[in-house]
Amino acid sequence: MDESPSQKKDEEIIVEPKGIRFRSNTDLIREGLLLFFRASDHEVGNVFTQLKKDIYRRVFQKFFKSPEGIQPKIKEVNEAFIQLSKVKKILEIHGDFSNIGETQFNEGKKHFRNKDYEKALVCFEEAVIEAEGKIEVFICAGTAALYSHKYEKANFYADKVLASNSNDVQGLVLKAMILREFHRLKEALQLLERAHQLKPNSPIIEKYLQRARDDVKAKASLISSAAKDLQYAFKRKWRRARLEREIQINDVADSSSKSLKTASLSAGGCLVEGADLPEEFHFTLALNAKKQVWGVGKKIYDIQNKMTGIRFQRLSAEDEHLINLEVMLASH
Q1: Which has more confidence, 191 or 11?
Q2: How far apart are CA 273 and CA 185, in angstroms?
Q3: pLDDT category of residue 27 using cuts at 50, 70 and 90
Q4: Which CATH architecture describes the domain 99-166?
Q5: How many Å apart are CA 187 and CA 136, to the nearest integer?
Q6: Nearest 5°: phi and psi at 65?
Q7: Would you kindly state where each structural domain of the chain is located, as residue ranges?
Q8: Is 246-330 in the same CATH topology as 99-166?
Q9: Fewer beta carbons within 10 Å, N or C terminal of the chain?
Q10: b/e per residue, 122-157, with b = 16+ CB within 10 A?
Q11: What is the 3-state secondary structure (H, E, C) of the chain?
């Protein structure tokens, strides 16, 4: 018996529903989950039901031609929703929090304009959580940390920026300013030269670049002058060289410590970048990755409150030999 046109049309719709447009799995899950977690307590039931309906429809579509897979998949969906409800309950998530990141970011900018950098940093760090890696938020957080004198944290955010884009001009300038605080002046100058190449007409970068050049020049002059003064003050036979090594200063009086860099070194003493040292202290000098020297140091003078001359005391003959050997190797 011939089929009627209306019956044939119904079968075509059932077999191949061309007029229906389904959202992708990714969109479906993203939209549904966001609604679920943003829903308030009195809304969550309706959102929960609608999300399940949407996913059920998706399951029926996927297994339309192999219906034996529908029931196992529906069971998996139901188990997943049980876990999802537990997560929501544990975290006590409710209300719409979609604009938290933007709100905190704007609040941080307000504090920054008012030069309240510590409050700005708190806001920017909260915004970072919501920002999903936006470079602008990292820049702001790093700059606020820099101006709050939290240099390690500032360095963390600067590295985040440059990891995303090694030629980000703001990231290069921020990193250079942090390195300046760490007295790594040549590295700071190199970064600013890169930033200037990328943005040659920026007056701000030109200003920082000139300051970095002046810093490097002044440091070289200080080291040269101080090394001569130190050599005269010690009147020792040991060889001296411009050598950057980490030295840990431990103040016995208040149990505080600080880490500095040597500008020049000999077995008789060293010149360090930094001031405000105790008159006498214990020190740990890292000669290389495997060798350290311990001893007592005495402050003998400082230069313009930027560099300090230290005399080593109570070193063993073996430690003096290790330092002298390191200096000789560095001189060649």
Answers
A1: 191
A2: 11
A3: low
A4: Alpha Horseshoe (1.25)
A5: 23
A6: -95, -5
A7: 21-91, 99-166, 184-235, 246-330
A8: no
A9: N
A10: bbbbbbbebbeeebebbbbbbbbbbbbebbebbbeb
A11: CCCCHHHHHHHHHHHCCCCCCCCCHHHHHHHHHHHHHHCCCCCHHHHHHHHHHHHHHHHHHHCCCCHHHHHHHHHHHHHHHHHHHHHHHHHCCCCCCCCHHHHHHHHHHHHHHCCCHHHHHHHHHHHHHHHCCCHHHHHHHHHHHHHCCCHHHHHHHHHHHHHHCCCCHHHHHHHHHHHHHCCCHHHHHHHHHHHHHHCCCCHHHHHHHHHHHHHHHHHHHHHHHHHHHHHHHHCCCCCCECCCCEEEEEECCCCEEEEEEEEEEECCEEEEECCCCCCEEEEEEECCCCCEEEEEEEEEEEECCCEEEEEEECCCHHHHHHHHHHHHHHCC
6 versus 246: which is more confidently predicted? 246
Cβ-based burial of 253 (10 A; exposed 0-12, middle 13-18, buried ≥19): exposed
CATH number of 246-330: 2.40.10.220
Say which residue the tokens 């997943």 belong to: 80
Name the average pLDDT for the chain. Answer: 76
Residue 54 has pLDDT above 90, yes or no: no
Does 99 score more than 80 pLDDT?
A: no
How far apart (Å, rounded) are the C-alpha atoms in residues 226 and 262? 12
> Shortest CA distance to 174 belongs to which of 205, 203, 202, 201?
205
Distance set, CA 88 to CA 55, 130, 152, 209 (Å)? 19, 18, 35, 52
**End-to-end alpha-carbon separation of the chain, Å?**
103
For the segment 38-58, the average pLDDT, to the nearest whole number, is 63
Contact between 54 and 32 under an 8 Å Cβ cutoff? The reply is yes
Binning pLDDT at 50, 70 and 90, where does residue 24 land? Answer: low
pLDDT tens digits, 270-295: 999 887 888 889 999 998 877 889 88
